[in-house]
Amino acid sequence: MGNHSDGSPNHSGTVATAGQNEVEKFQDPGIPPHRLRLADTDPKAAKRAERQVAILFGTSVVGTVIFLVAYFAIDLGDDSTIATIRLQNALLGLGTAFAMLGIGTGIVHWAKALMPDHEVSEERHPIRTEDDRQAAVRIVDDIVEETGIKRRPLIRNTLLGAVALAPLPALAVFGDLGPRPDNKLAHTMWAPQEGKLKRLTRDPDGTPIKASDVTIGSAFHVIPEGLNDLHEGKLNEKAKAVVLLMRLDPSSLNPSAGRENWGYNGIVAYSKICTHVGCPVALYEQQTHHLLCPCHQSTFDLTQECKVIFGPASRPLPQLPIAVDNEGYLVATSDFKEPVGPSYWERDEHERSINS
Amino acid sequence: MSAASTAEAPAYVANTKVGRVTDFVDERVGGSGILREFGRKVFPDHWSFMFGEVALYSFVILLLSGTFLTFFFDPSMAETHYTGSYTPLKNVEMSVAYSSSLDISFDVRGGLFMRQVHHWAALLFVASIAVHMLRVFFTGAFRKPRELNWVVGGVLLILAMAAGFTGYSLPDDLLSGNGLRIIDGVIKSIPVIGTYISFFLFGGEFPGTLIIGRLYMLHILLVPALILLMIVLHLFMVVVHKHTQYPGPGRNDGNVVGYPLGPVYAAKAGGFFFIVFGVIALMAGFFTINPIWNYGPYDPSPVSAGTQPDWYIGFVDGALRLMPGVIGNFHFEYVIFGYVLTLNVLLPALVPAGIIFTVLFMYPWIERWITKDNREHHVLDRPRNAPTRTAIGMAGFTWYCVMWAAAGSDLIATHFHVSLNDVTYWLRTLFFIGPILAFVVTKRVALALQRKDREIALHGRETGRIVRLPHGEFIEVHAPLDEYKRYKLVGFESPVPLPAVPNEHGIVTRKENRRAKLSQWFFEDRVAPATPAELEAGHGHHEAVEAGEAQKTLSH
Q1: How many Å apart are CA B206 and CA A305, to the nearest integer?
Q2: Can you give the pLDDT at residue B546?
Q3: Which residues of chain A neighbour B191 with C-beta distances below 8 Å?
Q4: Residues of chain A with pLDDT under 70
Q5: Is the CB of residue B172 less than 8 Å from the CB of residue B165?
Q6: B275 min Cα distance to partner chain A (Å)
Q7: Are B478 and B554 in contact (CB under 8 A)?
Q8: Within 10 A of B505 (CB to CB), how many other CB atoms are there?
Q9: Of A112, A113, B21, B147, which one is least surrounded by beta carbons within 10 A?
Q10: What distance in Å separates the CA atoms of residue B167 and residue A58, rounded to the nearest whole number?
């Protein structure tokens, strides 16, 4: 059988077809004879190529000038219009392109047309010679011998132990990169504060919403009352608390046991944060009562309590229990009954502690 | 003084001022020796060798344009109200990072241009690395002695993607903020430590106020430093190995045929840098990339439809879209021992990318094990001459492309007016059968091309000249190839399957059996190169049939 590992030319696998013996190969005819270019034989052609190269370099100079003119002559002023910026940007690009392409194509043309194009062959040398290997082994042996590490295991073992432990502080100093998660992900701003229920307000201006404003078929992007007054961590709270508010014909909603009082007259509120990886579920298809996440196309059916009917999400959007206060404004009767947003390892634990 | 100097050989004294300066430096750094070693080093030339150069030059351009951007960018997430000259956003509340990105675009002269140069160069950087790796794979350039350099290349690809993603997020605009949100969701799906990693990365809850500053440090210091280190390693190994060359007359594993570094190769390669720069400048001047002012500042509530990540992240995003969260009544997110396992996120985010990079890194060793080929290879394979490898590569490439296409499933649906759900169902199907189809088709095409090569080597090329023979038959005249062209078609190896070999104890191990089976699979379909004997026999055949006059037309 052909041994392909030994690299000898006799065994290099030139089997014609199955069942036949090995037959000889075509011999390498060597590097093809060199063909002269026009510029090599005709001085006129060479002169022409020379001029072309010079013209290309000249174009580069023009490009540099275009850039400088565009940079200094076009004033963005205090209220630069998009059109001015676009013009300057295009001219800067054009100038740089000419400046660079002029040099680049000039040099390449010079190399191709005028520099010798003889292909030459150079020998490869072994990457490692056996001689070098033996010398290296001897050196390493000598080094190891001189350290005496083999004869002194006590030194070796203590060194190994010390080196193994030394990086631990380097890991430990990153301990303050962030706080412990605790149960921060389990709570949002919707939780009633000091017995006061939070109103549902419009995103982004924060005006409260009356139940009578919500007509059948409409949808509101909602933030909790007081979000805009936060100075620290406003986005953190918003990233958990945003809600979609919609009103359907009450008969098309089928609330499950325990959720009968979570809506008001067909008005329901669901977390806007996708249970897949957290994009805002921003698209509401009024006719089909579907909510669609534009990032990965998870689709939730509003008439089935936002159950997943398509896409990569696995869990329904959490529902926010709402009611109407005595002024007619919509309020959240409690926080979400489960953590909102993408799943995480401790999520189930948090959900149980919320409901206990 | 005179006694000492006469005893030695007369010292060299340069004639010109430049010469004296050069000599001064040379005497102290030994430049002559370096020049002697490298000045005329031979480099093979081929258009496909330029992809690596494009990557290197894009990186240089990234460093130049990126340095400019750092002078004006402020990675702070502190709240501010926009006061710059872009009127639609006047007085809008935003982070300082976003505001300074807008300033770079609208109030710093040439800032928009630099931003666009930087972004286009980044896209080109990752793309050229990817295409370069495809070239290396399909031509077998990863074989001994270049396996380690292949691994360095793979690391560079990952680092390039990391550099791209960290930079993409810096402007703190709505689009990149949603990208970070997705990353956060993926991180949280990691079992046991996911929540902690998320809190550590963002310094608390998403989005917090630290992430931009942290990504900035990674983007402008750590990742580029690692890339630079890897590039140095990569080029060092290229020098040690010398470049590979395509097969052809006069080229073999013992030599390197090409142009000397000075002047031709250096001129071409050096000139090419300016060409790459020029092309990127053209793109930056005329094609808007990442118009952050259209997106607005990051806000966890809004999102626009039809948004795409930068192209190199697309395959992960596509995989996320393809994964169903629920099949029938089975939920891919389930609770195990009271903890949540989010397989509908974890699997698509990690598994396809994990498979692609694991196979990519291990492939040189896999093929080496199957073929038992431990020789050095400096002559490349034409992809058709390694049909199974080419087919494996195309299968992987197709798989990647299906996921990549899935990242634009919504755009496919809206552009071609088809149902979004159908697009997803089709892509899910292709996810599984696409690679298999690609494998089969590619292998057949490669074998067919090899047969075509054989035919051309034996019967010459078609000239398009139709000749009528005396007895009325029409034939197309085939012109025989010259020996150089023919050698290109016949000068390759066509290994046969290696049966299992017993080890030193005379036992054929189970592993060896598996290897033999894979070897069978790898090499069983093969087209052997044409041989002189066949050519001889072919000529005899022709002479017998096309006697006399026809033979005249057939000769040159």
Answers
A1: 27
A2: 41
A3: 345
A4: 1-23, 78-80
A5: no
A6: 5
A7: yes
A8: 6
A9: B21
A10: 37
